[in-house]
Q: What sequence folds into this?
């Protein structure tokens, strides 16, 4: 976004003079800027993501008095000032949890997880009627069908684009067919499933900010365990380059145990490991569509479905 446009927005909204603009290297879908170190400007660069961007604005307002989310002071989806959707909110003056995690003791880490679980419970227990009404979402969810449909859609695209071999696709399809019944059990609620530590802000060992609600949706509550398991197994996956140098797998080994202690309802499912395998498959397939040359995604899929061929 051009500096002159930012200056115009700030002038018209009495937000003061622009003294500094710093691009924040987070996420893949939007551009994020720190203005004067006092405000965050978030711009939706991808037109296909506009509905999710609208959802984020909705949830920031919806949860503003319940959990520590940004307080939006300006939102523009008119494209009259700039040809993209954008929001402005006061910067929450904390550090993302990845930047502090390696400095914490295990007791401090466990306490942070307890705080985060309390906030996840608020989200999961929220009345979602206004959400489904505004975004015209069915509140009758068949969770098994939802996950299976996403998997099959991704497989078809990957097969068509020859990103995965037909043999590998068949192996994945067989695994899904043999195990999808474990998803018949469902506990549907609002789920903030993007709960990796880059989206959690802390200060003095307190959670003071929760960011990025674009993909919060109606889902079975255990779906959040997918990203938590990924953080535990692949700590660098969602980190900024700056934080990667501090990543140690041993620092994340207790994540799921702590979540189970503070929020046992997330784990109260039969065949939980198979459920997490299916979530893992869905996420890895989606990842391959965007990043087809990432061999690690194919390797992770192969491990889950026990595909031992060298031909992916």
A:
């Amino acid at each position: 976004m051009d500096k002159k446009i930012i200056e115009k927005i700030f002038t018209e909204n009495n937000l003061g003079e622009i003294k500094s603009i710093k691009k924040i290297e987070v996420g893949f879908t939007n551009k994020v800027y720190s203005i004067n170190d006092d405000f965050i400007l978030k711009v939706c660069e991808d037109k296909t993501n506009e509905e999710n961007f609208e959802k984020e604005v909705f949830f920031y307002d919806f949860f503003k008095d319940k959990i520590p989310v940004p307080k939006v002071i300006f939102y523009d989806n008119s494209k009259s000032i700039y040809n993209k959707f954008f929001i402005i909110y006061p910067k929450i003056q904390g550090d993302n949890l990845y930047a502090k995690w390696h400095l914490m003791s295990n007791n401090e880490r466990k306490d942070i997880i307890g705080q985060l679980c309390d906030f996840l419970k608020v989200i999961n227990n929220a009345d979602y009627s206004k959400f489904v009404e505004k975004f015209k979402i069915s509140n009758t969810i068949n969770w098994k069908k939802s996950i299976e449909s996403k998997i099959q859609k991704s497989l078809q695209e990957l097969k068509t684009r020859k990103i995965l071999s037909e043999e590998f696709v068949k192996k994945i399809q067989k695994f899904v067919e043999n195990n999808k019944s474990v998803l018949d059990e469902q506990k549907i609620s609002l789920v903030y499933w993007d709960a990796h530590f880059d989206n959690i802000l802390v200060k003095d060992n307190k959670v003071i900010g929760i960011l990025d609600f674009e993909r919060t949706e109606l889902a079975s509550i255990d779906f959040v365990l997918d990203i938590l398991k990924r953080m535990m197994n692949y700590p660098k996956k969602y980190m900024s380059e700056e934080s990667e140098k501090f990543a140690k797998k041993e620092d994340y080994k207790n994540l799921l145990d702590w979540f189970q202690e503070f929020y046992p309802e997330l784990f109260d499912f039969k065949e939980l490991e198979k459920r997490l395998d299916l979530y893992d498959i869905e996420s890895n397939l989606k990842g391959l569509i965007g990043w087809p040359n990432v061999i690690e995604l194919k390797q992770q899929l192969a491990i889950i479905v026990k595909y031992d061929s060298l031909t992916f």
